[in-house]
Specification:
Strand order of the largest sheet: 1-3-2
Strand content: 5-15%
Structural class: alpha+beta
Helix content: 40-55%
Distance between the termini: 28 Å
Largest sheet: 3 strands, antiparallel
Number of helices: 4
Length: 107
Amino acid sequence: TAQLARTLHVLASGEDYGTLLAVGSVMLNRVGNPAFADTLEGVLEQTGALTGDEYDVESLRAARELLSGTRTLPENVLYLKREDSGGCWSSDGFFKQLGSFQFFTNI
């Protein structure tokens, strides 16, 4: 739980609770998908976001809710990017935007 909370805090600190859940949903959707690691720990390591040692109350609450089974995005939504991160991804796989994140089914 703490590892997911730390990752959510690093990736989406300052976003609203719904966006935290969506970012976490992408992480959990990746588990077991052939393009990603087979475990949540492996998926979180692939994000490169495990540099943080801290999390806040909202990130911990979101992590607990996600690990209890809540998903706010369909299982085929596997990719996300911050709107301000630069680069252009194909709009073909665009699913939705929440906060400063764009969510995609493919890239």
